[in-house]
Every structure is written in structure tokens, then in C-alpha cells.
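Milestone M4 deliverable, item 7.
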Amino acid sequence: MAESVAGVRPPAGRLNATLIPWGKSRTLFRVHRSIYKADQFNDSRKGDARFSPLMDAEREAVIPTLYAGTTLDCALMESVFHDVPYRPGLKTVSKSKYVEGAICSTLSVTSDLQLVDLSSVSLHKLGIAPADLTQTEAAYYAASREWALALYEQNPTAQGFIWTSRRDDDAKAILMFGNRVVPGMLEVGADAFPLLQPDGSARMEILSLAIRLDVLLVP
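Output delivered:
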């Protein structure tokens, strides 16, 4: 397995991945900009996330992806509070940068998704530690995207990934591929809400988590 300052890269050849059926009747939470629909997959080349953007070399196109979490706290930790550092004392998060114009939506999974399991047990089989794939800092995302693309290409029935959220280890993070998720597998909930109130204040769900993090929301 190749390793460099850019992180642990996938070895050549077949990866020993584990696929699991998951999600039927579960509710997923997603925090996204209001210009996007709740179930809209991202097909942009922009961004620098752990497992996206990904390029389909055969079609020379971006693989559309959608991130979600199994709890509201997870969705917020993976978006609004993603960059909050691990240090004591008061931290700040900019409302204009992370909260304004953002919406929390829910998606109901109507039938099991076929997901590549990236939990600790399955990562032993795959041959990489969580610290080198699902728990890395952003500086190593280029390497984690190489793993994601290899797993995508080698497992044509896989509709996404599931792993323990780095930011909220009580929950799971999910990534889904828009070109493999069958229409109707995700139903948009009716309980979406903007993260900011009409008067510009944050909703209680955001404030409650901010208090637990010792975070002050600033303009």
C-alpha cells in the first residue's frame, strides 16, 4: 500500500470490500444550501470532500453524490460545525458563512440501499485503518477520494458508502451515488426547515448543539 504526505493511497488490484443492505424505513438528515432540492445530487466538479467529487473516467463525467447523516446532530456536525476545532474554551462559527441560506431536510429510505461498509470491522478486511480513510483531516481527502473511486468502479452494484461519522461518532454518515440510486428509493420529508429564523436568529436545534460544543454563532 502506497503512503505519502498526501495520505494512504489504495493498492493496485482488487479491493476486498464488504457490501451490506441498509436503510429501509430509515430517515436520513441532510443540511444543504437552499438553492438545492432535498434529494438533489451534486454533480459539480467543485468542492473538496472526503469522498467527492469523483470522476467517471469512462463517461468523462462527475459521479453525482449526496451526503446525509442518520441524525440531525450528525448532519449539522458534518456541515455547519465541520471545522470546529478540538480545543477547550469558546469557539466561533460564522452564521453568514455556514448557516445563512442553509436548510435541513429529511429523506426516507423506502428500500435497502446496497452500501460499501466502511465501519471498523470491514476496514480490517479492506486493509486500511479508520485513521487513514474515514477519520482523516481534509489535507488527506485526495487520497480518500482515490479509495472512493476504486470502490465505486470495482463494485457496480454499490449505491454508496456508510461509515461512522468523524464529527459525531454516535451516528453514521452516508454517501449515495445519484446514477445508481433508483428513483423512488428516497422520499423527501415534509419537515424541512431553514437553519435561521426570519429574524436572523438560529433555530433552537442549532443553538443547542452550539452550546454543547462551546461555540458562539457570530455574524
